[in-house]
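Q: I'm writing up a methods section and want to include an example of the input and output format. Could you take the sequence below and give the corresponding predicted structure tokens, formatted cleanly so I can copy it straight into the document?
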Amino acid sequence: NNSLIVKYITKNDRIEVGDVLVTTGLDDLYPANIPVAKVVKVFYENNGFNSALCVPIVDFNKLQFILVLSHAN
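A: Here is the clean output for your methods example:
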């Protein structure tokens, strides 16, 4: 099973099936806007948060190497 659950999505954050999750760039490890996963189902919870079932965009089991290039301003 190659799916993952994203939890603690606030009710104000609009997330829908088909949305693509991307890196934020906040950790200075990966640049922003690298596609990571796609939302396949949204769970509307009663606890103040929602969650989403996502599937990876890439089959990471088939990757041998990855190179991330960042454009410096």
